[in-house]
């Protein structure tokens, strides 16, 4: 594991405050007299240790009661009943990986990997894993049983769900806007409410980028190292939000 000085340098590579200076792999190499491959190894070990230590506490798989609490928070802050989270993909800019060709080249004109994440009403990141969709389909994410929407006690119970944009399919656990070609007054109101609820994940990505300077430019690492850096940054985002705010799990 890295020594204290190198670990501090890696931390400043990920995060910054007003008094910190921006670090890079190259500057760490010269500052601590370590080879580039050694710095890369230390970064992978440190970011993995951050994830292993913080994920069980600050990004756990919610229980049924925790989901209900998140739904109440969504209703309180965004006036969106039964919603437990917003989901969206975000392009993380990277330097093109070796031998990857154009596989990571996106429609925006640069190389990237896609961070598919969800956030609750307070913009706390949740479940950054590609297996979430399968877990939802198999009903293994402890979602509560459907319940009546406010003011509609005589209607059918409505499932708890995540909200997404037009890129996502309409599913029992995932709500998306109506297409513009079929919008009427009531559907326009629904689209507005759903769009407002999605701001929590947009705010989460904005906070992540503003707090962690490494996301302001392309990340020049191997594929697995980039994934570990992103995981560490996301769980540190939650750690900071919880410690500096009033958010409860």
Automatic annotation (TrEMBL):
Q: Where is the DDE Tnp4 domain?
A: 163-238
Where is the secretion signal located?
A: none
The name under which this protein is listed is: DDE Tnp4 domain-containing protein
**Belongs to which family?**
Belongs to the HARBI1 family.
UniProt cross-references to Pfam families, sorted A to Z: DDE_Tnp_4
Q: Does the keyword Transferase apply?
A: no
Compartment(s) of residence: Nucleus
Q: Which domain of life is it from?
A: Eukaryota
Q: Which cofactor does it need?
A: a divalent metal cation
Keywords attached to this Swiss-Prot or TrEMBL record, sorted alphabetically, are: Hydrolase, Metal-binding, Nuclease, Nucleus
């Amino acid at each position: 594991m890295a020594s204290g000085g190198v670990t501090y340098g890696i931390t400043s590579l990920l995060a910054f405050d007003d008094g910190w200076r921006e670090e890079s792999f190259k500057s760490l190499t010269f500052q601590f007299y370590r080879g580039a491959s050694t710095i890369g190894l230390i970064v992978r070990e440190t970011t993995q240790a951050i994830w292993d230590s913080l994920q069980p506490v600050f990004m756990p798989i919610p229980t049924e009661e925790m989901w209900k609490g998140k739904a109440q928070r969504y209703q309180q802050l965004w006036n969106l009943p039964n919603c437990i989270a917003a989901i969206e993909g975000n392009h993380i800019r990277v330097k093109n990986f070796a031998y990857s060709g154009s596989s990571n080249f996106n429609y925006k004109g640069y190389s990237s990997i896609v961070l598919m994440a969800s956030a609750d009403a307070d913009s706390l990141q949740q479940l950054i894993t590609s297996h979430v969709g399968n877990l939802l389909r198999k009903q293994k994410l402890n979602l509560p049983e459907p319940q009546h929407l406010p003011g509609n006690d005589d209607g059918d119970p409505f499932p708890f769900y995540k909200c997404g944009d037009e890129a996502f399919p309409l599913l029992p656990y995932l709500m998306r806007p109506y297409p513009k070609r079929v919008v009427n007054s009531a559907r326009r109101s629904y689209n507005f409410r759903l769009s407002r609820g999605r701001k929590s994940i947009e705010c989460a990505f904005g906070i992540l980028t503003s707090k962690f300077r490494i996301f302001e430019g392309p990340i020049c690492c191997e594929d697995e190292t980039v994934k570990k850096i992103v995981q560490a940054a996301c769980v540190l985002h939650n750690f900071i939000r919880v410690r500096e705010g009033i958010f409860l799990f």
